[in-house]
Amino acid sequence: MGLASSHPAACLALAKRAHVSMRKLDLNYVQTNARKILQTSTANYLKDDSILRGRLFQADPVEGVVSSVFTSFYVDRKEPFATLRTWEDLHDMKWPLGDLLEGHEYFCVVPIAGRLRLVNELLQSL
C-alpha cells in the first residue's frame, strides 16, 4: 500500500494503519514495491514511474532525498515541515523518507500482507 503526500502526518497515518513504525520503515520494501504501487494507482498522474525521485530510485539523486515523487504540486510546506521537525526531535532521528523538494511529495510504501493474513486467520477460526 502506498501514499504520495507532502505532509508527514499522512505518511504516519498510513504506517500506523499498516502497523508499521516509521522509525523502522523498510526502505528495501519501498524500493522493491514502489513501481508496482504506482502502476496500480487510481491517480493517473502517479502511474508513470519516471516521477520517482531519491536514492532508492535514481543513480544520481539530489542529496538527502530518499523516497519521493515529482507531482508538480507546489504547496505551502510551513506546517508540514513543522510537523516533520517535531517528529525528528521526538524520535532523535532523520525522517526516513528524506528531504522533500519543491513540487514533490513523499512516497511512503508499507506492507499489508501480514494484516490480511491475520484477518484471514480470524475469519477461518469462526
> How are the strands ordered across the major sheet?
1-4-3-2
Rg from alpha-carbon coordinates: 15 Å
Low-confidence stretches: none
Head-to-tail CA distance between termini? 27 Å
The H-and-E topology, N to C, reads as EHHEEHEH
Structural class: alpha+beta
User: Count of DSSP E strands?
Assistant: 4
Number of helices: 4
Query: Globular, elongated, flat, extended or rod-shaped: what is the shape?
Result: globular
The portion of residues assigned to helices is 25-40%
Largest sheet: 4 strands, antiparallel
Tally of structural domains? 1
What value does the average pLDDT take? 89
Strand content: 5-15%
Descriptive key words:
126 residues, single chain, alpha+beta
Summarize the SSE layout with pairings.
Layout (H helix, E strand, L loop, with lengths): L1 E4 L2 H10 L9 H13 L12 E2 L14 E3 L7 H14 L12 E6 L3 H12 L2
Antiparallel strand pairs: 1-4, 2-3, 3-4
Give an account of the 3D structure.
The protein is of the alpha+beta class. The chain has one domain (2-124). Helices cover 39% and strands 12% of the residues. The protein is built from four helices and four strands, in the order E-H-H-E-E-H-E-H. The chain has helices at 8-17, 27-39, 78-91, 113-124, and strands at 2-5, 52-53, 68-70, 104-109.
